[in-house]
Design goal:
The protein has eleven helices and no strands. The protein is mainly α and about 325 residues long. Helix 4 packs antiparallel against helix 7, helix 6 crosses helix 10 and helix 8 runs parallel beside helix 11. The radius of gyration is 22 Å and the shape is globular. Its EC number is 1.14.19.11, 1.14.19.2, 1.14.19.26. This is Acyl-[acyl-carrier-protein] desaturase.
Length: about 325
């Protein structure tokens, strides 16, 4: 029977792996400067400096692109909570501590760049954005919560497995947001951010893979728990459900993308359904992942039906509005 590792023992066992992965990350990283991706010439003073405060007519992004970019920014804004979470779980000593600080430094530029872009291009209400930032950071974040808000047991395994999926989901969300913006500047910026997120995902994914080799059953328990209770870190953003619907219907991040582009690629990389080193409860939980994936497939199907109904309603509303405008125009002439 394989013994379970405490977090302290697991930190020690994985230290050599983390050291190699940190070295690999430093050789693969692509440093970039947030200021290089901001169209500064479009900027102008706001009221406090004798300029004009924001007006909704100044925003050029579509509702989907604006909602997604603001949601992504507010998610990035909660970096203090994320740093605290990974520092508490991974520690600040040795290679683990080196990674925690490096990851935090790289993540910090994402929020800087997104905020500069939105404020300079006037693609969102900067006053509302600041109010939301304060609220979001005040609420904090913990990945150790399920959909009902109840805490489930957290461990180092939980932490690294969660961020393996979360970093990939964030990469996909940023990349699709860039495409939705229909602006080459925003697209370039979000490609840069996505590149960072991809390297972060690879680091956590490979740490988790090493953990699976060290103790498959213990890792499987965490994997099952994480996927059963998974939600994105932006769930604490005010009015999250409405924004998530706009983002999903707009094709930036929806249940199908979550399953096909996030969950399944990671599970395949870890060879979860091909491995033969699970036993007892670990084997049972691995088999139960099949049920979970079937549930996610069912969610995808239901979402597509609901999405089509919503789009049809929106088309009818748009047609009625266009007809009304035509009648008004005809009567005026």
């Amino acid at each position: 029977m394989t013994k379970e590792f405490t977090d302290l023992q697991l930190l020690h066992e994985l230290e050599p792996v983390v050291e190699k992965l940190v070295d690999r990350h430093m050789s693969m990283r692509k440093d970039w400067n947030p200021h290089d991706y901001i169209p500064w010439k479009e900027g102008k003073n706001y009221y406090a400096l004798g300029g004009q405060d924001w007006d909704p007519e100044q925003a050029k992004l579509s509702e989907v692109a604006q909602t997604a970019m603001v949601q992504n920014l507010l998610t990035e804004d909660n970096l203090p909570s994320y740093h605290r979470e990974i520092a508490m779980n991974m520690g600040m000593d040795g290679a683990w501590g080196q990674w925690v600080n490096r990851w935090t430094a790289e993540e910090n530029r994402h929020g800087i760049a997104l905020r500069d872009y939105l404020v300079v291009t006037r693609n969102c209400d900067p006053v509302e954005l600041e109010e939301l930032r304060v609220e979001q950071v005040t609420r904090g974040f913990s990945p150790g919560q399920n959909q009902q808000g109840d805490l489930f047991a957290e461990s180092l395994f939980d932490s690294v497995i969660y961020v393996s999926f979360q970093e990939l989901a964030t990469r996909v969300s940023h990349r699709n947001t860039g495409k939705a913006c229909d602006d080459p500047v925003a697209d370039q910026l979000l490609q840069r951010i996505s590149g960072d997120e991809n390297l972060h995902m690879i680091f956590y994914r490979d740490v988790s893979a090493a953990g699976l080799d060290i103790n498959p059953n213990q890792a499987m328990a965490s994997l099952h728990r994480v996927l059963t209770n998974f939600k994105m870190p932006g769930y604490t953003v005010p009015d999250f459900r409405r924004k998530a619907v706009v983002i999903a219907v707009g094709g930036v991040y929806d249940p199908r993308i979550h399953l096909d582009d996030v969950v399944m690629p990671v599970l395949k990389k870890w060879r979860i359904f091909e491995r033969d080193d699970f036993s007892g409860e670990g084997a049972r939980l691995r088999d139960d992942l099949g049920r979970l994936i079937e549930e996610l497939e069912d969610t995808c199907d239901k979402f597509e039906v609901a999405k089509e109904r919503r789009l049809e309603r929106e088309r009818k509303v748009a047609e009625k509005k266009a007809m009304k405008n035509l009648l008004v125009s005809s009567s005026a002439s």
